Amino acid sequence: MLDLPVTMTAVGFAEHGGPEVLRPETLPVPRPGPGEVLVKVAYAGVNRPDVIQRQGLYPPPPGASPLPGLEISGQVVALGEGVTAPLLGQAVCALVSGGGYAEYCLAPAAQCLPVPDGLPLDCAAALPETLLTVWHNVFERGWACEGETILVHGGTSGIGSMAIMLGKLFGLTVIVTCGGADKCRAALEIGADHAIDYKASDFVEAVKDITGGKGVNLVLDMVAGDYVARNLQCLAEDGRHVTIAVQGGAKAQINMAQVMSRRLTLTGSTLRARSATFKALLTQEIAQTVWPLVEAGKLRPIMDQAFPMEQAAAAHTRMEAGHHIGKIVLKMG
């Protein structure tokens, strides 16, 4: 264990509300428990769940830090019981259940990935949440296979941009929806095969045109609400619909006869509340299947903007405005 300060600066909130409720606070530096490491945080990713938590709509799971921040990068400075010594001093990025908006953050050792040479720490902090979310939902829950076609909503978001890149690396045809011509151009530059401006055209009809009426094999949906019925119209027979957020509303009305006759599968998941065992296994799979592409420089997150930690409110404002393309991060150092 390296010499550690007693206190640290973190960004939290005393009450729920808009971005202005975020404020710096002084807290004790946490100490790692069994199976945990303490990371001196260089950067923390900013994600939509952070915004929803700040608004009071997404409480942290039991035992998690009340601070926002679900992914970090930095240096391991202390080890908990049972963690092997080689991690000490290493640069890692990690998926965490909270606490990322701080100078020091606890992370399960089994959810840490080594930062390879050539990967800047801001990029490293932008990987864990989106990478694990997309991999699990597209390839594990959605059963995506080489040669299939996927429809991704929000193509220039952190999740959307990761879905484009992973999809192309693993042999998918990727269709995305975006709000506006500029974002469609950006999605095509990221690697999407087709980009639909949902403000200018009906994405259901556009998908039919692109696929010659066949439809897509998979929809990755973060809107829900009235999008669900429209998404089902985009699916080919035996298609899969995977929901990962409900930005358009939690309730959907669908035709179950259509689900039966066309053998559609509806599924979805959230990552934060899953067990430590599940997250460890998912991290292990990422280490084996995707991390070699990161190490080889073939996969890099699309970066939008880095804000100093004291400007966390500005980072949240930018995310909520929807102007960002790719990932927003906070610089903690």
UniProtKB/TrEMBL annotation:
<dbReference type="Pfam" id="PF13602">
    <property type="entry name" value="ADH_zinc_N_2"/>
</dbReference>
<protein>
    <submittedName>
        <fullName>PIG3 family NAD(P)H quinone oxidoreductase</fullName>
    </submittedName>
</protein>
<dbReference type="InterPro" id="IPR036291">
    <property type="entry name" value="NAD(P)-bd_dom_sf"/>
</dbReference>
<keyword id="KW-0560">Oxidoreductase</keyword>
<dbReference type="InterPro" id="IPR013154">
    <property type="entry name" value="ADH-like_N"/>
</dbReference>
<dbReference type="InterPro" id="IPR011032">
    <property type="entry name" value="GroES-like_sf"/>
</dbReference>
<dbReference type="Pfam" id="PF08240">
    <property type="entry name" value="ADH_N"/>
</dbReference>
<dbReference type="InterPro" id="IPR020843">
    <property type="entry name" value="ER"/>
</dbReference>
<dbReference type="InterPro" id="IPR014189">
    <property type="entry name" value="Quinone_OxRdtase_PIG3"/>
</dbReference>
<feature type="domain" description="Enoyl reductase (ER)">
    <location>
        <begin position="17"/>
        <end position="330"/>
    </location>
</feature>
<keyword id="KW-0521">NADP</keyword>
